[in-house]
Write a structure and sequence with these properties.
This protein is about 20% helix and about 25% strand. The chain is of the alpha+beta class and about 325 residues long. The protein has three domains: about 1-60, Structural Genomics Hypothetical 15.5 Kd Protein In mrcA-pckA Intergenic Region, Chain A, CATH 3.10.290; about 80-160, Pseudouridine synthase (2-Layer Sandwich), CATH 3.30.2350.10; about 165-280, 2-Layer Sandwich (Pseudouridine synthase), CATH 3.30.2350. The strands form three sheets. Strands 5, 6, 7, 8, 9, 12, 13, 14 and 15 form a nine-stranded mixed β-sheet that branches. Strand 14 and strand 15 form a beta hairpin. Helix 1 crosses helix 2 (about 25-35). The protein is globular. The mean pLDDT is about 90. Pfam families: PseudoU_synth_2 (PF00849), S4 (PF01479). Responsible for synthesis of pseudouridine from uracil. This is Pseudouridine synthase. Its EC number is 5.4.99.-.
Length: about 325
């Protein structure tokens, strides 16, 4: 595959510029592509990662075909919330990666689905059959998977058109503040801050201005319960950026409890397996009968135990 890009903004070192403009490729991989002669600048091979790019430069990036990961079905139990011949909705458990990648070659949701389903959509990349959207490894809750190509494309369009509604529940540090009214007394609000790849730590996302390649990200929140130094919060997503809730709440000083990336400096005396973030409800239009339906995933046991402990401490 070949990517072609025209520099339309301020120039920079080519490895930095490319890593800021191609979000799904790490800077380390870009540097390797440069080293192996797979990056072309104005029809000449780029010889160093420190080469400067300038306004109007034409860049070509040749991406060698990745080595295919062998997808073997695995008999992993699934909590199925809804299923028919066209799609399936799963209540994903914490610790499960959605699809295979070089660091996760077994035990993923895809491996489990291949064992459970006789067929899945082949739209998109070969190692993501049926996968329409994702949840982070330690985020639990609802995820829809397509069984046919038509259903896959229909669901993707719903995501693009923002007609799929996703509601999350989380426990965060502190109390979210309504910025418009500058008040902690108002228990709901909206976070409208663009998100992009973190400029230094490539594993993280961050608040990045639109003109610096950030993408629009809108999160609606409502406090369901105040629990001393913590809050139980409902989040509704208008957009679906990577780590959106985790980045937005952390930026406002209220990171999700147990988040290893965005609240690592926060101490807590209950052992948690990951961030306390649960995809509680998923509402979508069925691609075949065109009826809207909603699926709800109960809170996982660890989440309910945490709430019980916090409530006891604050009684």
């Amino acid at each position: 595959m070949t990517l072609k890009l025209i520099v339309k903004d301020k120039g920079d070192r080519i490895d930095l510029w490319l890593s800021n403009h191609i979000l799904n490729i790490s800077r380390a991989r870009i540097q390797k592509l440069i080293k192996t002669g797979n990056v072309i600048v104005n029809n000449e091979i780029c010889k160093t990662k420190k080469e400067q790019v300038f306004l109007g430069d034409c860049l070509q990036i040749y991406l060698p075909s990745p080595k295919k990961l062998e997808l073997m079905p695995e008999a992993i139990p699934l909590d199925i919330l809804y299923e028919d011949e066209y799609l399936i909705v799963i209540n994903k458990v914490a610790g499960m990666v959605v699809h295979p990648s070089p660091g996760h070659t077994e035990g993923t949701l895809v491996h489990a689905l291949l064992h459970h389903c006789s067929y899945l959509s082949d739209v998109g990349e070969f190692h993501r059959p049926g996968i329409v959207h994702r949840l982070d490894k330690d985020t639990t809750g609802t995820i829809v998977v397509a069984k046919t190509a038509f259903v896959h494309q229909h669901l993707q369009k719903q995501i693009r058109d923002r007609t799929i509604k996703r509601q999350y529940i989380a426990v965060v540090h502190g109390v979210l503040k309504n910025k418009e009214n500058n008040s902690y007394k108002i228990d709901k609000g909206v976070i409208n801050l663009p998100i992009g790849r973190h400029p230094v730590d490539r594993k993280k996302m961050a608040i990045i201005p639109i003109d610096k390649n950030g993408r629009k990200a809108v999160t609606y929140w409502k406090i369901l319960e105040r629990l001393g130094n913590y809050s139980l919060v409902k989040f509704n997503l208008e957009t679906g950026r990577t780590h959106q809730i985790r980045v937005h709440s952390s930026f406002l000083g209220c990171p999700v409890l147990g988040d290893p990336l965005y609240s690592s400096n926060r101490s807590f005396n209950i052992n948690l397996s990951g961030q306390v973030l649960h995809a509680h409800k998923l509402s979508l239009v069925h691609p075949i009968n065109l009826n809207r339906f909603e699926v709800t995933a109960s809170l996982p046991l660890e989440f309910t135990k945490l709430l019980k402990s916090l409530r006891q401490k604050n009684n």
